[in-house]
Write a structure and sequence with these properties.
Number of domains: 1
Bound molecules: guanosine-5'-monophosphate
Oligomer: single chain
CATH topology: Rossmann fold
Distance between the termini: 17 Å
CATH superfamily: P-loop containing nucleotide triphosphate hydrolases
CATH class: Alpha Beta
Order of helices and strands: EHEEEHEEHEHEHHEH
Strand order of the largest sheet: 2-7-1-8-9
CATH architecture: 3-Layer(aba) Sandwich
Amino acid sequence: MAKGKLIILSGPSGVGKGTVRASLFEDESLNLAYSISMTTRFPRAGERDGIDYFFVSQEEFQRKIDEDGFLEYAQFVGNCYGTPKDYVDQLLNDGKNVVLEIEVQGALQVMKKCPEALTIFLVPPSMDELEKRIRGRRTEEEDIVRQRLDKAKREIATQNEYKYVVCNDDVEEAKNKIAKIIKMNANVLTK
Ligand code: 5GP
């Protein structure tokens, strides 16, 4: 069986990566699998361990680093996030196209290790709109919101490192554009 494609989906906090990703996963023909990350961040309301993330302590995260268990890892606004390596390899070998929804520092590490990865950066229609979306989430303190906005500006400045940049003005449109990109670049199911 042909190996699957590694797909990196990045974009600033609040751009709607999760929503676009959920929409992409409804299309079974894209043959996608999601790489569940590990994080030391506390779960938000509604998030489930082993589905949205593996929520772990700092010690557990460090142990995974020590045993070289991450494809990449990074710090983001005070918390650690990482992609467990074995699971990704297994899915790729099973012929799945594996989506990593990760921030920029981690994405740059993966691009170095796996230059064949398909890399996509989602941008917001404007910074005002991004701020509205981040504030609309209403789950975080003002200083965290500020830090996420600062970080968003710096992340958007790295978009040229990615093969494709897609604007998330409308979820359905962004989803369709990304589905087309995946169909051009990866093994998809033909019926
Ligand atoms: P959040 O706290 O909003 O869930 O995630 C913060 C940022 O970390 C987002 O940009 C998200 O895509 C990114 N992220 C999630 N998992 C990983 C991971 O495994 N590695 C890296 N480098 N970033 C991640």
